Amino acid sequence: xxxxxxxxxxxxxxxxxxxxxxxxxxxxxxxxxxxxxxxxxxxxxxxxxxxxxxxxxxxxxxxxxxxxxxxxxxxxxxxxxxxxxxxxxxxxxxxxxxxxxxxxxxxxxxxxxxxxxxxxxxxxxxxxxxxxxxxxxxxxxxxxxxxxxxxxxxxxxxxxxxxxxxxxxxxxxxxxxxxxxxxxxxxxxxxxxxxxxxxxxxxxxxxxxxxxxxxxxxxxxxxxxxxxxxxxxxxxxxxxxxxxxxxxxxxxxxxxxxxxxxxxxxxxxxxxxxxxxxxxxxxxxxxxxxxxxxxx
Length: 296
Ligand code: GLN
Hints:
Layout (H helix, E strand, L loop, with lengths): L2 H15 L4 H13 L3 H4 L9 H15 L4 H5 L1 E4 L2 E4 L12 H10 L22 E5 L5 H9 L4 E6 L2 H15 L4 E4 L10 E6 L6 H9 L6 H4 L9 H11 E10 L5 H10 L2 E8 L5 E8 L4
Parallel strand pairs: 3-4, 3-6, 4-5, 6-7
Antiparallel strand pairs: 1-2, 7-9, 8-9
Helix pairs in contact: 1-2, 1-4, 2-4, 6-7, 7-8
The structure holds glutamine.
Glutamine binds next to loops.
């Protein structure tokens, strides 16, 4: 069987059993089985797939069909143009979470020293800016910020030791250096003063998490389940971030699409000003930001 026929067989099988992107999923699994990168796979469509690779591919398609994420099967996921190792100790990075990165980048002081003081010759950012990424999981948000802005001092934390191990691996693989990465719930592992806090806490309702688990997802419940309304973690995120931030520092947090008004109120109750809710590409509320303006 050639690659084209294998791809159409896999796409057909996945189209029946799991929603989403059967063609892309089959292409990733086929590329993985024959050891060809996805962008080169189209050029190898006429090539014969060796029998052992075809068997392996069919086995992977069956795993995907039973609900396992493609990223867990192939062991990585692309995020913001970089590749992250993932396994069932962490949530698979979502494309929507790139918005959290965009918002976080927009919250840093303008480049080239509008605020005065010493600036970095490479980024133009004021020197000494510090950011903490909580609930880091694979590390994708904090590592992206560190990769985009090498002068930003970034630290990471997660309540799960397993997640933290994987995040440390990704730090070294993506950045080629280390970042401070510690175990801790919410922001307990962060140290003041911070200029930016990013957080993608678990925000799925407990009932929906049950349904996701029942469908065969192997993602960690700890990374999804945000309690009855999915909002359990936000009061602690907001109050701890407020305490750790410098005056003028900002919090950016990912939220579920129905949580904009509730999380806005939680940030305002914690003292944040300029609270704004941003929509993802599908038009859903996805990220809330707030700025600490200390009362003087
Ligand atoms: N966006 C994820 C999902 O819909 C949830 C991520 C989270 O809880 N932080 O599965």
